[in-house]
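Can you make up a protein sequence with its backbone structure tokens?

===
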Amino acid sequence: MPFIIHGATGAQGGPLYASLRRAGLDAVAAVRDVAKFPDDTAVSIDNDSVDSLISAYRGADGVFIHLPQTSEAGRLQHARNIVQAIETAKPKRIIISTNGAIVDQPGSALQSSDDSAIMVLIRGVQDSGVSHAVVAPRLYLENLLLPMVFGPAQSEGVLQYPVAADYAVSWSSHLDVAEAAHKLLVDPTVSGVVGIGHQPGLVSADLAEGFSQQFGRDIRYEALLPEAFGDLIEPMIGPATASVVGLYKALAYAPDNVIRQETSAQEVLGLHPMSVQQWLNAMQD
């Protein structure tokens, strides 16, 4: 029976879909337009259509889900629709990616609220009784590929990002998420939240060192204010800028953004995230 992969044409679902296919597993891309998918292993879904989700999920060995980047109202409706489809179709296994939302720090100001879309999705899957696990990355290394970040690092030797120089983060890549999600899909013995990323966290010197090794010259780090970062990304992402700036403002009030050791992929799955240089090399392949 197939593994249904939401977002198989995107940055997060794509590496997982490819990983499963390389392993000879029956991976099926869940996409809106199957005609645009490069091969015939796709099924049409629409997160606004419960019936399409039920049809895709029924008989599946596993489903990988992450909510798309849209309005929170839209994400909430998608979460409710997905939960309804899971309750009806009863696939054997569900893996949810939080896509950077923090769901395993109760009491923290960074913890996603109970009425947020991601928590509605997680709680609904828990209540469905279907075997499941949650992969919980923090910040993605792929954020450093944004042209306003990667460009100055490459041309001017300055890596700019809106976190303080001594702020520790469990950085991870989409490839790390795919590796963990693959293992969790085929191993139903692990449940609960699995943190993805470096533990202990990386600080700016670690990022700069990885870039220096890759480029063969010194790269220095420069912390940006969230508002200044917002000015750089606003022409690219438009109205979504406000939520991005809000995230980095919130992070500034927390001592770090680091996953818990006891629920990390290192501890639970024996998986370790790529170093910054390993990830940069992978991005060039």
The beta strands are 3-6, 27-31, 42-44, 62-65, 93-97, 131-137, 158-161, 192-196, 220-223.
